[in-house]
Design goal:
Layout lengths: L13 H8 L9 H17 L7 H17 L5 H15 L15 H13 L12
Length: 131
């Protein structure tokens, strides 16, 4: 078995648990609602005057999430659940590293997104981690 280039991060330990808890398939008619949740999250981060989030990472994650929503209908059930997990981890899940407070705290979201992209055979769309 080949070693994964983008495994789920082991720290903080809640990343894997949180990600797996939001992985589920959604019916196609639920995708517009998820897209709205995604847009609302990104707009909230962008409009918060106290935000210290890495906006380049935010934009990259948003771009990949929209891409995954576009390819969702053509994927297997397992892949669909991974797609929903990546999007919800980024936009809806309460993760351990609040994006609005810390400047590089999209790193866990990026690692989850890259993991899913690799699982889907789309690692060429991976996002570079901020330093």
């Amino acid at each position: 078995m080949l070693k994964k280039k983008f495994p789920l991060p082991k720290f903080p330990p809640s990343v894997s648990v949180t990600f797996r808890s939001v992985c589920q398939e959604l019916p196609l008619e639920s995708l517009p609602e998820l897209r709205t949740e995604l847009n609302n999250f990104v707009n909230a981060v962008l409009s918060d005057p106290a935000t210290k989030a890495d906006l380049n990472s935010l934009r990259s994650l948003y771009d990949r999430a929209l891409f995954l929503l576009d390819v969702y209908p053509d994927r297997t059930n397992k892949e669909q659940s991974l797609i929903i997990g990546a999007i919800r981890y980024f936009a809806a899940a309460k993760d351990s590293l609040p994006e609005i407070i810390f400047s590089t705290r999209f790193n866990d979201d990026i690692q989850v997104m890259n993991h899913v992209l690799e699982e889907l055979g789309l690692e060429s769309r991976s996002i570079e981690l901020s330093s």
